[in-house]
């Protein structure tokens, strides 16, 4: 009995040490990550100026859509504009070449989809290697985890409408809350979950989104979110900035991927 108890105590102690090694420095309350999907034009014309106004960080996940066509620059940013977002200090990140769901891709296909965006970004002087990925449609697959690891990505975002717990959630399965339409009640409630070591990540599409109106966020509502975060002294960062708080290497080794809440 005593031997079993001793083994349990040692196991719990080792687990506590491993968990502590995941956290690089204490995570402050009111920590928010803003992410923006799909490279729609309003990210450049409306979102970026507002982020600069409030001195907030943000991550822009880039994909080139087939429908409606990415060539329609009344709907989507040009790569030149994406390069300018990078120069402004925002994170440019990977959302696959054509917004292809990873559960429909084989290993080499996903590698190629990621490489395409990486090369296009390099062409507009995004110098640093991409470290963040967002799953199109929030669909995940164990094979994608392996590809992200092979290519050196540090973070990958899903849906789930949950706060991110770095001690439990795998870095390649970071949950987020999606703004869509007028779900402001849900979003303001989500902000209040950014405490006790948990981080709130938002997924935002177009502000507005003429290419994908079913995920539109009205401009006045979005600015209301930013003003609330500013006035209530939240810290707002890009996804890549989580490395200031999280030892990604230890998290990847310690936490097992859990696919039960990935939408």
Task: Characterise this structure.
It is a single chain. Residues 5-18 have low confidence and may be disordered. The chain has one domain (27-254): Glycoside hydrolase/deacetylase (TIM Barrel). The chain is 37% helix and 14% strand. By secondary structure, it is an alpha/beta fold. The termini are far apart. Strands 1, 2, 3, 4, 5, 6, 7 and 8 form an eight-stranded parallel sheet that branches.
Provide a concise account of the structure shown:
Strand 4 (132-134), helix 5 (142-150) and strand 5 form a beta-alpha-beta unit. Strands 1, 2, 3, 4, 5, 6, 7 and 8 form an 8-stranded parallel sheet that branches. The chain has a single domain (27-254), classed as TIM Barrel.
